[in-house]
C-alpha cells in the first residue's frame, strides 16, 4: 500500500507542478508510448542478459513481495521464540532423543504445527531442524555448529541479495537508456531541419521525454523498490540469527527461558517483543 501511495505522490508532485506552471502534457503523452516501449524493452533485454533465470524469477517474486506487508512482525517473532522454547524445554526434560521425531518430520510434529506462522515456513523449519539434528547426533560442539550456521546465513544473505543487486543495476541503466532514446529523437529531429520552428520544437520536446522518463523510472521506481527489497532481505537474515543465537545458548547449557532471551535480544528494536510480552506469550501457549 505504501509503495503505491509513494508512487502516487511522486507522479502527483512531478506532473502536478509541471501543469500548475503552465506545462502542456500533450507532447509528453504523445511521446510516452514510444519512449516507454524503447526504454522498457531495452531495459528488459539487458536484464535478461545480465541475470541467470533463477535470479530473474527471484527478482520478479521479490518485486511482487514489495507490495505486501512484511511478515517479520512482533507476533511472528513471539511465535518463533515460543516454538524454540517448547522444543528446548522438551529436550531438556525428556532428553535430546525425544525431539528426534519432531526433527525428522516437522510437518506432522505437534510442536511445529502448534505455531503455523513459522512451522509452515519451509526455510525456517529446515534451518531449525538441520541444527537440531546435529545437536541430537552429538558429534559437533557449539563452535563447529556456530561456524556452520554463519556460513549458511551468509549464503542465504548472498542469494537473497541477488534480486536487490539486479534491480539496482536496472536503476543504474535506466537513465542511460533514456539518453539513448533522447539521442535517437535528436537524430530524427536533425533529419527534419527544414520544418517550421513549431514542428522542430515539438520533435525536440518529444526527444527530451526519453531522458526525463529514464531518470524518473530509475530514481522514483526502480531504486526505491531495490531499497525496500533489501530491507526485507535483512529482516530474513535477522530471523535466522535469532534462531542461531537461541540454539547456541541452549548448547552452552542455558535454560530454555534464558536461551530464548538471548534470541530476543538479537531482534530489531521495532519488532522485538518485551521480556514480559514474550514470557506471557510462552506461558499462554
Describe what you observe in this structure.
The protein is mainly α and 285 residues long. The chain has twelve helices and no strands. It has helices at 2-20, 25-50, 53-65, 74-94, 100-104, 110-113, 116-119, 122-137, 142-190, 197-251, 256-266, 275-284. The two termini are 33 Å apart. The mean pLDDT is 89.
Note the overall shape: elongated
Strand content: under 5%
Structural class by sheet pairing and helices:
mainly alpha
Flag low-confidence runs.
none
Rg on CA atoms, Å: 27 Å
Between the first and last Cα atoms, what is the distance in angstroms? Answer: 33 Å
Brief descriptors of the model:
285 residues, 12 helices, mainly alpha, single chain, 0% strand
SSE map:
Blueprint: H1 2-20, H2 25-50, H3 53-65, H4 74-94, H5 100-104, H6 110-113, H7 116-119, H8 122-137, H9 142-190, H10 197-251, H11 256-266, H12 275-284
Amino acid at each position: 500500500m505504501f509503495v503505491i501511495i509513494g508512487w502516487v505522490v511522486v507522479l502527483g508532485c512531478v506532473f502536478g507542478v509541471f501543469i500548475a506552471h503552465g506545462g502542456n502534457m500533450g507532447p509528453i503523452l504523445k511521446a510516452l508510448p514510444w519512449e516507454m516501449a524503447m526504454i522498457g524493452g531495452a531495459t528488459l533485454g539487458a536484464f535478461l542478459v545480465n541475470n541467470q533465470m533463477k535470479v530473474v524469477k527471484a527478482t520478479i517474486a521479490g518485486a511482487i513481495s514489495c507490495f505486501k506487508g512484511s511478515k517479520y512482525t512482533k507476533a511472528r517473532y513471539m511465535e518463533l521464540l515460543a516454538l524454540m522454547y517448547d522444543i528446548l524445554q522438551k529436550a531438556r526434560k525428556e532428553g535430546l532423543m525425544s525431539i528426534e521425531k519432531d526433527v525428522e518430520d516437522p510437518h506432522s510434529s505437534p510442536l511445529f504445527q502448534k505455531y503455523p506462522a513459522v512451522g509452515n515456513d519451509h526455510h525456517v523449519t529446515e534451518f531449525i531442524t538441520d541444527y537440531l539434528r546435529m545437536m541430537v547426533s552429538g558429534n559437533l560442539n557449539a563452535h563447529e555448529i556456530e561456524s556452520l550456521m554463519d556460513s549458511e546465513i551468509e549464503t542465504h544473505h548472498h542469494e537473497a541479495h541477488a534480486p536487490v543487486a539486479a534491480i539496482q543495476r536496472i536503476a543504474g541503466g535506466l537513465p542511460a537508456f533514456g539518453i539513448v532514446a533522447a539521442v535517437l529523437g535528436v537524430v530524427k529531429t536533425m533529419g527534419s531541419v527544414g520544418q517550421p520552428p513549431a514542428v522542430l520544437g515539438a520533435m525536440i520536446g518529444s526527444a527530451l521525454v526519453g531522458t526525463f522518463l529514464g531518470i524518473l523510472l530509475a530514481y522514483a521506481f526502480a531504486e526505491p523498490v531495490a531499497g525496500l527489497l533489501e530491507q526485507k532481505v535483512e529482516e530474513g537474515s535477522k530471523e535466522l540469527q535469532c534462531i542461531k543465537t537461541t540454539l547456541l545458548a541452549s548448547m552452552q547449557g542455558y535454560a530454555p527461558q534464558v536461551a530464548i532471551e538471548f534470541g530476543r535480544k538479537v531482534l530489531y528494536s521495532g519488532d522485538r517483543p518485551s521480556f514480559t510480552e514474550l514470557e506471557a506469550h510462552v506461558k499462554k501457549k
